[in-house]
Prior knowledge:
Layout: H1 2-42, H2 46-74, H3 76-95, H4 100-128, H5 131-162, H6 166-170, H7 173-186, H8 200-223, H9 228-250, H10 264-293, H11 299-305, H12 307-327, H13 330-346, H14 356-383, H15 391-411, H16 413-417, H17 423-447, H18 459-467
Helix pairs in contact: 1-2, 1-4, 1-5, 1-7, 1-10, 1-11, 2-3, 2-4, 2-8, 2-15, 3-4, 3-7, 5-11, 5-12, 5-18, 8-9, 8-15, 10-11, 10-14, 10-15, 10-17, 12-14, 13-14, 13-17, 14-18
Amino acid sequence: MFTWLVHKHQRLILAIAVLASFVAFLDGSVINVALPAIVRELGGGLSVQQWVVDAYLITLGSLILLAGSLSDVLGRILILRIGLIGFGITSILCAISPFPEFLIVSRGLQGIAGALLVPSSLAIILSAFRGAEQSKAIGQWTAWTSTAFLAGPLLGGLFVDYLSWRWVFAINVIPIAITLYLLAILKQKDTRVAGVHIDYLGAALCVLGLGGPVFALIEQGNLGWQSPAVLLPMILGLVAFAAFIWRQRVARQPLMPLGLFTVRNFWVGNVATTFIYGALSLGGFVVVLFLQEVAGFPATLAALALLPMTIINIVASSYFGTLSGKYGPRLFMAAGPILAGIGYLLMLTADKDVNYWSQIFPGVLLFAVGLSATVAPLTAAILGSISETQSGIGSAINNAVSRVAGLIAVALTGLIVGETLDTDGFHRGLIATAGLLIVGGVVSAIGIQNPKHAPRATSEAGASAGASTATPDSTGAQS
Length: 479
């Protein structure tokens, strides 16, 4: 009887963790599809579309490290509940937005809530399961949350085409309500870690250090580089980011321990992450917008255009992960991104009268294979290079790096494609995406070292890989 109750309790925790993460992943996988409809109704151009994406990523990427500290100090269940309620409220605000500025601010607030969800959901799994059961639970968590990447774009496209883009945000309320109900019947006593101090100053400097340059990169297209409204945020943001790095050197309990970057595979892997995940965000952003705004695809078809990438990634990632464990990650981290980059170059034949099956689909397939060969080995190389006790913060740092890379890539879109997206701008976006992927492969080929012994591809490394390292969605962005 006791064993049955324990298993029931664990199943309830797993369901809560899956639903909480599903909400954040679903929101990340649908947004690109809704951008053209948002601009048609609320007004604005490319800069508004950039801000709708980046306002969320600024707060999410800069606060995800802080969220881990908060869950230790205040309790994982409490932080998860706050994140769910906050995400629900801000989702409704996004859905009822009367003008672009309201939506952008709401997206920023939504990112704050989102930063609390994924780390806390993983933490309650790790606290409730041990040994082989923990590995199995993480695998189930990854499998179920991966369905968000399959369902998200299709649901988003259907909402946009047949209802309204506002439903893309409003639909979040249903899984949030179910998760809050399950938390209420869980009745689990929250745990707090003694002796943890929160680096609020570091968090504030990180937000300012990211927000200032991103604001300048996006608004330079509207105001010009000579405008004080562009120059001052850029300069002050860079100063704040430099101060954030300094703070991490002197803080008693830093958000981002810089000592980890003395480990070769850790720092090289994160440099590769910057290029690769920056490419994923840029590529997904320009492809989905091009298919809708230039080629005239309905939102549903535009969403489905990159769906093969998600399917192949889900099916093949474990296979490449196994090969990486056998032969080491270096070959796969080098060849995978280069292959993915060539996939984007194959799309250069596309023009306004695009033929999806001959001009887009072959590139998507090649990109999908290359990405599948990259993701698991990349995570294994980064987390396998540090101790198990550091895997939590290591995966959080890699998660933050991937999101910040996507944030900057989207902010640079205007410089790459121009003020409005046309065929020439689309081609420049494809070349830039391919270039970033190829550079990521070259960095890995030069810098990554295969371990002299079997990599630590244990359940914990796999857990962090699936849970904390950003997973690409079917639009090419990261969740």
